[in-house]
Amino acid sequence: MMSPRLLFLLLSFSSVVVATSTTSNRGGYKFEASPAMKVELAVWIICTIFFLLEAILCLIALSRVKGRRLTYFLFLVSQLLLLSRSITGIIFIFIENNIYATEPPVNALLLCDAIIDICKRVGQAFLFMATVYLILDRHEAIDYAAGGRIGHIDSRMPLVHYALFMGSIALGIVTAIFSERYDSRLWKGYFDLHPKDQAKENTHVQNLSYAYQGFSDSAGLYVLFFIAITYAAMVRMNVNDKVMKFLLFILAPFQACAVIINVLFSILFSPIGPKYAQTSIGNLQYSTANTALFNVCLLGIGMAILLPGLLRTNWNLKGESQSSVPLQRMRKGLVSG
């Protein structure tokens, strides 16, 4: 039910944006883009297909994961946001590459760019929380199967992941707002009249971006740490959990790659990066590579979360059905030993 409505809203939005972008253009529409731009368009289209597929599979998983629906609801929100980002990326390219446009539709492009940024940052935050809740579920299940010998997680850990979640969203939205404000002033010629303000605002946006990146990468490292200690506890207690294996051997490598990609491209786009990255062609090529590689990581993380949810037997520990009892019932002590 949610997916068709979302797609309808996105299609309606795209129609409005395209119509708005062509109101000042009496010559019609014709798409013409450079090879690099066509590659970026292909990347966005492929990402749209796969994020849509993961969203649909998540709806199926939601019907099969009783007691873990919060995890998969958070995951669904993340996929819908990332899907919205991909669709908006396609719209952005089609608007930007209308050769009949008499002038660039700045407002429409800025709106699309803002949506892309916010959906990416907030979507990542929800994906992080879905991952954390899944690991928490497995920690509790392993502890139950081991007769309570592992013990509950440190009471400070929830504070950490909630702080990372809220901090990522807050900093992500603030960074996107200030970034779009800077781009708007740049495109509309504000800095031509106030040249001294450009360097100051650019530095401010970069600092916000680095702060957000720090939160995002810290969240990724936190996930890797949480997976490591939970898997180590599983091995120590001689418990076999398929879900933890999905997390360790599928999700963790993609999460590690995502952190590395973030750091690498942050350096490439920084003032100390190669000069080629500052040119229009170089920036486009690096941005396309960043989009493609990072989305592969997000899709890989998504599949690692989805696969256990599609088959109920994945939640059994040592093949014992009682170990797949929902987490809420374990905490309430409703499971007989």
Layout of secondary structure:
Layout: H1 2-21, H2 35-62, H3 69-96, H4 106-145, H5 156-187, H6 190-193, H7 195-236, H8 242-269, H9 280-309, H10 327-331
Query: How many individual β-strands?
Result: 0
> How many helix segments?
10
- Secondary-structure-based class equals mainly alpha
Order of helices and strands: HHHHHHHHHH
* Largest β-sheet summary: none
Report the radius of gyration as a whole number of Å. Answer: 22 Å
CATH topology: Rhopdopsin 7-helix transmembrane proteins
User: What proportion strand?
Assistant: under 5%
Helical content class: over 70%
Task: Give the N-to-C terminal Cα separation.
Answer: 39 Å
Question: How would you sum up this structure in a few lines?
Answer:
It is built from ten helices and no strands.
